[in-house]
Structures are given as C-alpha cells and as structure tokens.
C-alpha cells in the first residue's frame, strides 16, 4: 500500500475503535456491565463486521463487473439472501445460526448468478441490464418473501420491514459468530483477486493478453461478494447503499488500486455502519429507526448523482 493509504487505514481503524467505545456507552438504558456485554457489544461487533463486508463487497463488484453502480442490494444479491433465510426459517432453521448463514449465502449466490448471466453481452455484463436484472430479482424475491412472511408462523415473527430496511436490534454473540467465518473467507478471496482486478480495469482483452483468466477472476470476485454479504443479510436484513457509496468515496481519495481500495473500503464501511446504527438507536429514542432507512436516506440522493455522472461519461444509454 502507498503511504497515504496506510495513514488513511490507520485513521479509520482508530475511528472505529473510538466509535465502538462511544457506542458501548451511549443508550437509553443505564450502561451496566450486563447491558453493555450482552446487548450493545454484539450489536457493535455486528455493525463493524457487516459494514466491513458491505464496503469491500461494493469495491469488488464495481471492479470485477466494470460497473460503478454495482451494489449487492441494488443488483438483487441481498434480496436473494433474505428470501433464502426466511425459507430456511420456514423449515426450522434458527435466525442467526450457522445453518441460516449458509442458507443465506446460497440464496445470495443463486441471485448473483441469475443477475450476472442475464446481463451478459458479448462476454461482459452491461451497466443498464445489470441494474434492470437486479430490479427484477429483487421484486421477485420480495414477492416470495411477502408470501412466506404471511403464511409461515416461524417467519412471521420477523416483519417484512426488518428484511427490507435492516436492523441490528436483535444482534447476539451467536449471530456474530455465525457471520464471522463467511466474512473472513470472503475477505481472503478478495485479497486473492485484488491484483488481478487492477489488470482487469484495463479491459477484458488487455487483461487476457496480460495472462489474467478474466472469467475465473470474475467468478472468484462474485463468490467473495456472496460470502461477504449473504450471511450478514441473513442475520440483520437488507442494508442498501453502503457498498455503493463507500468505494466511490475511497477511490476519490486513494485511487483505483484494489489492494488499498478493498482494505480501506472495509474500514470505511465498518465505521459508516457503526455511526448509522448509533444514530438509528438514539435519534428517535426510545423508538428505533431501521438502520437501512438511515443509509437509504443518505444513499438514494447520492445514487442519482452517480447515475447521471455515469450516464454522461458513457455518452448515454439510449
């Protein structure tokens, strides 16, 4: 990593530690040792874990698909994971368990495969087709999810709002440990493909001429995204726009090299989700705003700006 990237990573790491300590102290209830350890601490750990996964996943998707608008929630991966989680609960899997995390990851993988295959044109995924395929997959998964929540007693305990907006309110230590192995495996896969993604940015033909197996790199990158996102969605629901916005902000500061981009995006995503969750807990106290609503309120206007900028750079999509 460059010196700038190292300093930015260190600054974000310190900010995550300080933010975590503040989040442990802040809350409506008195900060007893039991409340801090059993309620706030797993929530903070989950925010850091899932935020880091979303930040890195967004950078991976944008780099591997050459699509600056790619985000796990926007292209249907998160919706596939949510649907699979509720379907698993319908047959007896416990929310926040390792089995539920595995089921969510499989659902995310199926959704990713459908969207990427549907958007292929001349061997490469198109920007607009990818987004439209993501909309279709999200709508289809949402419809099935609504049916399952309505008809299944086990699934009905968790409202559809939870899955569509996301919440860390039910985070526990077992849920954290069920998500952790998937995120670690995804992070390892991301580190493995980071250098190849730099070459892939030159274009498929140039990357192939340089000895990069383009198809293999894309498959590995999408697999890493599925691992980084799937189990987290199964534990806390769908949280949008973190994977879209964080890599853009980091890329503007550090440039496009993926080794630095992935690490700093993970740290920035962790910090962003930690701050968003703290705001969600305290803003309307004693009520709680879904954390996905906080990220969407920030991310939706920014998405329109990115959409217009991307369209202008490509000369229109007509």
Can you offer a commentary on this structure?
The chain is mainly α. It is 76% helix and 1% strand. It has 13 helices and 2 strands; from the N terminus they run ααααββααααααααα. The chain has a two-stranded antiparallel ribbon. It is globular, with a radius of gyration of 19 Å. The termini are far apart.
**Strand order in the sheet with the most strands:** 1-2
Low-confidence segments, given as residue ranges, are: none
Total number of beta strands: 2
Largest sheet: 2 strands, antiparallel
Structural class by SSE content: mainly alpha
CA gyration radius, whole angstroms: 19 Å
- How many helical stretches? 13
Question: What amount of the residues lies in strands?
Answer: under 5%
Mean pLDDT: 85
| Tertiary shape | globular
Elements, N to C (H/E): HHHHEEHHHHHHHHH
Can you give the helix content as a percent range? over 70%
Short description:
The protein is mainly alpha-helical and 318 residues long. The chain has helices at residues 3-25, 33-64, 77-90, 98-118, 127-151, 153-156, 160-165, 173-200, 204-209, 214-236, 242-254, 258-282, 291-313, and strands at 120-121, 124-125.
Blueprint (SSEs and pairs):
Layout (H helix, E strand, L loop, with lengths): L2 H23 L7 H32 L12 H14 L7 H21 L1 E2 L2 E2 L1 H25 L1 H4 L3 H6 L7 H28 L3 H6 L4 H23 L5 H13 L3 H25 L8 H23 L5
Antiparallel strand pairs: 1-2
């Amino acid at each position: 990593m460059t010196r700038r990237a190292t300093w930015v990573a260190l600054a974000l790491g310190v900010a995550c530690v300080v933010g975590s300590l503040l989040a442990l102290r802040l809350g409506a209830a008195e900060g007893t040792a039991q409340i801090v350890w059993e309620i706030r601490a797993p929530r903070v750990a989950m925010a850091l874990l899932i935020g880091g996964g979303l930040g890195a996943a967004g950078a991976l998707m944008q780099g591997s698909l050459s699509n600056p608008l790619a985000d796990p929630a926007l292209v249907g991966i998160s919706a596939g994971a949510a649907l699979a989680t509720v379907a698993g609960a319908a047959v007896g899997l416990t929310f926040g368990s390792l089995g539920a995390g595995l089921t969510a990851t499989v659902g995310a993988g199926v959704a990713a495969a459908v969207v990427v295959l549907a958007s292929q044109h001349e061997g490469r995924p198109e920007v607009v087709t990818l987004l439209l395929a993501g909309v279709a997959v999200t709508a289809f998964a949402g419809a099935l999810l609504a049916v399952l929540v309505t008809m299944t007693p086990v699934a009905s305990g968790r409202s559809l709002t939870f899955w569509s907006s996301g919440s860390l309110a039910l985070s526990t230590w077992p849920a954290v440990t069920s998500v952790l192995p998937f995120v670690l495996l995804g992070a390892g896969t991301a580190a493995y493909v980071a250098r190849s993604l730099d070459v892939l940015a030159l274009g498929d033909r140039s990357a192939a001429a340089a000895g990069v197996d383009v198809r293999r790199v894309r498959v590995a990158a999408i697999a890493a995204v599925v691992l980084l996102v799937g189990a987290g969605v199964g534990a806390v629901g769908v949280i949008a726009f973190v994977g879209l916005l964080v890599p853009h902000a980091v890329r503007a500061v550090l440039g496009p090299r993926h080794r630095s981009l992935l690490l700093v995006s993970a740290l920035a995503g962790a910090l962003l989700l930690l701050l968003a969750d703290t705001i969600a807990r305290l803003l309307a106290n004693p009520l709680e705003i879904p954390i996905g609503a906080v990220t969407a309120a920030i991310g939706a206007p920014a998405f329109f700006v990115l959409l217009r900028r991307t369209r202008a750079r490509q000369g229109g999509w007509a």
